[in-house]
Amino acid sequence: MENIEKVGNPKDVWVTCPSCKELYYIDRSFYEPQFNHLKLHCPFCHLDFPKEESPRIWGL
Amino acid sequence: MAKDLRTYLEYLEKEKPETVLRVKKPMKVAFEISALQRKLDALKKYPVMIIERPILDNGEESAFPVVTNLTASRELCAEAMGLDHRRIAMDYSARVANRIDPVTVSKEDAPVKQVIEHGAEVNLLKFPILTHNYMDPGPYIGTGFVCNYDPESRIDNCSLQRIWVKSPRRTGYWPAVTSHSMLNIRKWWGKGEDMPVAIWIGHHPAGISGAQSRLAYPDSHYPAMGGAMDEPVKLVASETFGEDIMVPADAEIVIEGRVPKNVFEAEGPFGEYPGYIGPQRPSPVIEVECVSYRQDAIYHGIGVGLADHLVMLGNFPLEARIYGIVKSVIPELMNVFVPISGRRNHAYLQVKKTRPGIGKDAIMAALPCDSRLKHIFVVDEDMDLFNENDIMWSVAYRSQWDRDIVTVKGSAVFPLDPSVPSPGNIGTRGGIDATAPPPIDLGLPRFYQMINKTPDDVAEAIKIEDFVDEDLLKNYPTSS
Predict the structure, then answer these.
(1) In whole angstroms, what is the distance from residue B213 CA to residue B94 CA?
(2) Which of B166, B208, B277, B465 is most buried by its number of CB atoms within 10 A?
């Protein structure tokens, strides 16, 4: 079906840092098999963390 | 004397001092320099900025000054190449196509070899590398030309890529999937080897623009750089890779290292040229082994996402490319302008409308010229292509939305556009033919209502200066 409205699905995946709780976003390619193991890097407190440890994730 | 960054700055300060802003107060490399640049950009003021006392993240004053906004003014950029900014579409290609082979100089004759540091001596964080936007994870080199070579043909490639300095000897960087750099990475990794790279920073703006020119693959950018500068680039062998990777001898800084095989790390988020902060991505890294630089090196930073990032480093080559391709099928094409407002997504085309269909044909010819082109606006020869009021006026009064729009769904578009659905980066591109109807026959006028106009003789006779004081005129309110 043709999309005729802008819908709420974000382009990127939004995550929160498990340490500082700040919100930012990552490319969907982090969920591809070759990158699934990579840790994310919080741009605010610089914690490296597995994405599964993000307290809240939107856009998956 | 060979053209380089400092000969250009010396020229400006001597011949055009009004174009240079020297900041003598200390400014932090984290956000403060970018903040000033952003505020000037908002005022549409684009001096070349020299920050004499940049303060590093550790609180120390850097030994090296920063120059930024080097490529922000369209008029100044064109003049640096000896061109008229209104004729970039026509003349830029000729300059870059006039290839001039580089010359090789010895290490002793290469200013960039004045200081050479290896291994543990290397500390990229002593350079005043800017942090630009609030979500950037740290300092980013925005003006580093990453040089590598195709392991099959051994032909070199240069490309401007964002480089996040993570620690003294390790960086992340993001070559786009479709870039020639990424092609080379895949070839090296396919051979089971790390890819050697040398990154050079700082050169004459014409040289930088030539190095950024869009070429076939594989093809060396150094002859194009020479063409853009109208003189040969002086090259010197890199310290780590010898003549396998040559670097400009007159650069300010060269960083050498390797892209380790199959290593990806989180990189970004990073505020990019569209003016939006792109997401964190899995990206290759560079393990730095050597750095060489001038004793009094000038670090060239860039206003990411501002005019400094757009005018010369993307829009000039794009205008020339569109002109060349579209002109070959639409001889009535007169000029092309890629405005900073559209940040490489928009192009304005001017045509001489002698027959029906030219507008839409021009749109269809222009769209495939670059994956970043999203909307094409075609206007008549009586409009000022460089005045966006004229472009919008044409859209307002020379088009009907349903009749004059071209829409191409399902097209591959550049991933840095946040409106493009993901995954896939497949979106919609198109354009609007905002031209008036052509004459219905040869020798006839265009039967379209005439534009408001004072009679010529009266317009000639009435001069502003006869009625309004010049100083008062400067202070009268403007409108938009």
Answers:
(1) 12
(2) B208
Residues in A closer than 8 angstroms to B139, CB to CB, are none
Model-level pTM greater than 0.90?
A: yes
Q: Please report, in tens digits, the pLDDT of each residue of chain A (60 residues total).
A: 355 566 666 789 999 999 999 999 999 999 999 999 999 999 999 999 999 999 999 988
Is the minimum CB–CB distance between A26 and chain B shorter than 8 Å? yes
Residue A6 pLDDT: 66
Q: B136, B165, B281, B416: which to substitute to probe chain A, counting the most A Cβ within 10 Å?
A: B281
Tell me how close the Cα of B423 comes to any Cα of chain A, in angstroms.
7
**Segments in chain B below pLDDT 70:** none
Of B269, B420, B422, the CB nearest to A24: B269
The predicted pLDDT at position B94 comes to 87
Give the dihedral of Cα atoms B182, B188, B191, B193; nearest 10 deg.
-130
C-alpha to C-alpha distance for B25 and B387, rounded to whole angstroms: 37
Going by C-alpha positions, the residue among B243, B225, B246, B226 that lies closest to residue B235 is B246
The verdict on a CB contact (< 8 Å) between B269 and A25 is yes
Q: Is A27 within 8 Å of B279 when comparing Cβ atoms?
A: yes
What is the C-alpha separation between B141 and B87, in angstroms, rounded?
31
What's residue B331's pLDDT? 97
First to last CA, chain A: 21
Query: For testing the chain B interface, which of A41, A53, A54 should be mutated: the one with the most B CBs within 10 Å?
Result: A41
What letter represents residue B395's amino acid? V
Query: Tell me, what's the pLDDT at B443?
Result: 86
User: Which residues does residue A49 pair with via DSSP β-bridges, in sequence order?
Assistant: A40
Task: Check if the interface score ipTM surpasses 0.85.
Answer: yes
Q: Give the closest of B136, B279, B282 to A12, CB-based.
A: B279
Measured between alpha carbons, how far is B29 from B473 in angstroms, rounded to an integer? 39
Give yes or no for a cis peptide into B418 (omega within 30° of 0): no
A49 interfacial to chain B (CB closer than 8 Å): no
Residue B31 burial (C-beta neighbours within 10 Å; 0-12, 13-18, 19+): middle
Chain A: give the shortest CA distance to residue B270, in Å.
Answer: 10
